[in-house]
Amino acid sequence: MRLPSNLRMKLARDFARVKSQGVSQAGKYLVLGALPVEELEGFQFGLITGGRLGNAVTRNRIRRLLREIVRAHQAEISPGWQMVIIARWRAPQATLAELENDWLRLARRMNLISRKPPAPPAP
Q: Which residue among 19, 65, 100, 108 has its CA within the 20 to 30 Å range from the CA of 73?
């Protein structure tokens, strides 16, 4: 299942606005920046994977993992937020579970997640 393109931040000015006007929290593998935007119905996110992470294969792998994390938790993310996820230098050594735990901890700390994940169905 793909994420709709309207959830992606594409313009450099949006990234710059989140950086200058928003707040950020740093984790072990990620830095999460967020800015509330009133006219936004859902949420938008952008990814930054700098050249220090490694070659293009490594950077693209990190981007795929981060998109999967956002896709898996998109129902929990509060509407009206623009967020930028920046991969730190340790990210290439992290597993999907470690990246997801780091992202969830930062998102909860910043109140980006509106509700607890749904309980698994009873057998």
A: 19
